[in-house]
Design a protein that fits this description.
Blueprint lengths: L1 E5 L4 H4 L9 E5 L7 H4 L4 E5 L4 H9 L9 E4 L16 E3 L5 H11 L11 E3 L2 E4 L4 E4 L2 E2 L4 H11 L5 E3 H9 L8 H14 L6 E4 L3 E4 L1 H7 L3
Helix pairs in contact: 5-6, 5-7
Protein name: Transcriptional regulator
Organism: Leucobacter chromiiresistens
Pfam family, one: Trans_reg_C
């Protein structure tokens, strides 16, 4: 982790256990008012109150309305009565904390990474936003059932390819589906009806199955 320690002495003197951990620790004077942009470059800010709890409190208060970077105050046991919620810290460490305890408390402060949003599928005028379960055709919303959406999503995600009915059943309905391939034909017919004048985007390959935007892909291929 990238740590910023606000202290007027070596962090190893304030929190000896920290020196045994493989974190990158930068030190700045306790009196320094940390700009939000500076704090955001670190995973956590340590505020050293081992020598002067009042100055540590002032440093904490100066950050309450600023960065969302987690703050950890280091206080000796005799100064714990001074610690109140207004300090705005997320964790407390005693100077005698072991490396194991320090590591655990720092790990609990780690902010979860946002899950990546699935990319929208775009092919031949169809735009599918999987995160919102919406599908558009040249800007026009398509009113699809769940399985129609899944079938269009799979076909549009593989433009130019041809899939057998059995493959589509496996990919869209799942391997535990016991219905027949007629289900695929029914859903393709309904999808084509909703695509309207662009129903030809889903093509039939006799004796094989269905493909999406095959004519469009063939037109774009170099001779």
């Amino acid at each position: 982790m990238q740590l910023l320690c606000l202290s007027d002495r070596d962090p190893a003197d304030s929190l000896p256990g920290l020196d045994l951990l493989p974190h990158d620790v930068r030190t700045s004077p306790l009196s320094l008012r940390v700009p939000e942009t500076m704090a955001d470059r670190f995973d956590a800010v340590l505020i050293d109150g081992t020598l002067d709890a009042r100055r540590a409190r002032a440093a904490c208060l100066s950050m309450v309305d600023g960065s969302e970077t987690p703050r950890v105050v280091i206080l000796p046991e005799v100064a714990l009565t001074a610690l109140t919620p207004e300090w705005g810290v997320q964790e407390l460490l005693l100077p005698t904390a072991s490396p194991v305890e320090i590591e655990l408390r720092l790990r609990l402060l780690e902010r979860p990474q946002a899950a990546p949003q699935p990319a929208a599928v775009q092919a031949a005028g169809v735009i599918i936003d999987e995160s919102n379960f919406t599908a558009r055709l040249f800007g026009r919303p398509l009113d699809l059932t769940y399985k129609e959406f899944e079938l269009l999503h799979f076909l549009a995600g593989n433009p130019g390819r041809v899939f057998t009915r059995e493959q589509l059943l496996s990919e869209v309905w799942g391997t535990d589906y016991f219905g027949g391939t007629r289900t695929v034909d029914v859903h393709v017919r309904r999808l084509r009806a909703k695509l309207g004048e662009h129903e030809g985007l889903i093509s039939t390959v006799r004796g094989v199955g269905y493909g999406f935007a095959r004519a469009r892909i063939e037109e774009e291929e170099p001779e």
